[in-house]
């Protein structure tokens, strides 16, 4: 009984489903872009303000980061203690109630933080806070 090997069919890939999905996506994006154009068609006159004032007259808190090696960083800028003194003098001259938050690295010597606190005292900063992290159970 000989095997019939003459009629081997080539494998075919049915792309009908994929073409349907592509057409649905095209229709979806066409409809979506028409909605955004329709929203822009409204003739709206936006209100104007003459002189907008901030909601409060309080300045933002100054955050001083003290790294493990003693570097003092304010706003992504490394400062010496003298530069920090000048910056704080300027701020307390403008805002008497300027708040300073000192974030010291827990691995560094505490003397670095005390030095920054001394600079704050010389600049007559009244509101000084030390940032800390609450210890979670298991740490």
UniProtKB/TrEMBL annotation:
Subcellular location: Cell membrane
Main location: membrane
Transmembrane segments: 12-31
Keywords of this entry: Cell membrane, Membrane, Transmembrane, Transmembrane helix
Record has Ligase as a keyword: no
Topological type in the membrane: Single-pass membrane protein
A molecular-function term among this protein's GO annotations: transmembrane transporter activity
Any one GO cellular component localisation term in the record: plasma membrane
Statement: the UniProt record of this protein carries the keyword Signal: no
Protein name: Biopolymer transport protein ExbD/TolR
Naturally occurring in which organism (per UniProt): hydrothermal vent metagenome
């Amino acid at each position: 009984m000989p095997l019939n090997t003459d009629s081997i069919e080539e494998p075919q890939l049915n792309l009908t489903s994929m073409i349907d999905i592509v057409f649905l996506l095209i229709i979806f994006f066409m409809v979506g872009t028409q909605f955004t154009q329709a929203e822009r068609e409204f003739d709206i006159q936006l209100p104007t303000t003459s002189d907008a004032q901030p909601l409060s007259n309080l300045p933002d808190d100054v955050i001083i980061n003290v790294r493990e090696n003693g570097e003092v960083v304010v706003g992504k800028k490394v400062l010496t203690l003298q530069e920090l003194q000048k910056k704080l003098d300027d701020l307390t001259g403008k805002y008497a109630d300027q708040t300073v938050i000192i974030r010291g690295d827990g691995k560094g010597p505490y003397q670095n933080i005390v030095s920054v606190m001394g600079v704050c005292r010389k600049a007559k900063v009244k509101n000084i806070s030390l940032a800390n992290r609450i210890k979670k159970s298991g740490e």
